[in-house]
Specification:
Layout lengths: L1 E10 L2 E11 L4 E5 L6 H9 L6 E6 L2 E2 L5 H8 L2 E4 L11 H12 L4 H14 L15 H13 L5 E5 L7 H17 L3 E6 L2 H7 L2 E6 L2 E7 H4 L5 H7 L3 H21 L1
Parallel strand pairs: 3-8, 3-9, 6-7, 7-8
Antiparallel strand pairs: 1-2, 1-4, 4-5, 9-10
Helix pairs in contact: 3-4, 3-5, 4-5, 5-6, 6-7
The structure holds adenosine-5'-triphosphate and magnesium ion.
Keywords: ATP-binding, Nucleotide-binding, Transport
Protein name: ABC transporter ATP-binding protein
GO molecular function, one term: ATP binding
Length: 262
Amino acid sequence: MIELIHIKKGFGDKVVLHDVSAVMEAGKTNLIIGSSGSGKTVLMKCMVGLFEVDEGQIKYGDQNFTAMSDVERKPIRQEIGMLFQGSALFDSMTVEQNLMFPLDMFSNMRLREKKKRVNECLDRVNLKEAHKKFPSEISGGMKKRVGIARALVLNPKYLFCDEPNSGLDPQTSMVIDKLIHELTVEYEITTIINTHDMNSVMEIGDHIVYMYQGNKQWEGSSKDIVFSKDEKLNDFIFASEFLKDAKEMRQLEMSRGKQEGS
Ligand SMILES: Nc1ncnc2c1ncn2[C@@H]1O[C@H](COP(=O)(O)OP(=O)(O)OP(=O)(O)O)[C@@H](O)[C@H]1O
Ligand SMILES: [Mg+2]
């Protein structure tokens, strides 16, 4: 479990995260949702240590990550895999070399073991034929899968994905979502995903944290989210015209149910 306790973070005079407390549940798919600019990426970067918080604590289990030095954080960092927005693959390296890179940097494996691990991870994301291709030669969805395979190569305990669906069509988005969810269950990973895609919330979200203007506005399960009475959350999840109609129909049904019940 990752615990966020009264996190504050700003840049100069601008406060981006005001006072965020939330929990990322162990072995689950945790989704951080919210409009553009609500602070999702900054929060994620604080969690992995790319940004330092101004106040508050981030705890990995009972370890206080915030209070640790870089050296003390190293074992936790090695358990973190990250899929960056836009995949962030190395353009001059083949798919295989992209996956080799973290193994060369952070493992003591022999070449044969490394190759085996690269193959395993590429097989797992259904990319058997892409080993020798360069990122420019593959589609956006395939790039995401390479990014996921690279995040998995060191066998992480925690997987962070910043907008894994950005730039993908709805069908490919669903394939990527399902893949991340399956991997979370299969390898018992604690996964944290930033998204503003409501399809992801309903398909794969076990635990949801809703961010609004740098505050945690709501936190709960995907079952509870549809019935939440939080106005701001409702405005976010029922943002499209179609869903607004659905919301009105739902309210109508609910008031009918009440009348019939009384
Ligand atoms: N390095 C930085 N320096 C100054 N301000 C920053 C920095 N990084 C982010 N911000 C500001 O923090 C706020 C939150 O940004 P963040 O990228 O976390 O939003 P987000 O919720 O991830 O949005 P999106 O859905 O568009 O990715 C924004 O107003 C942004 O301008
Ligand atoms: Mg972002």
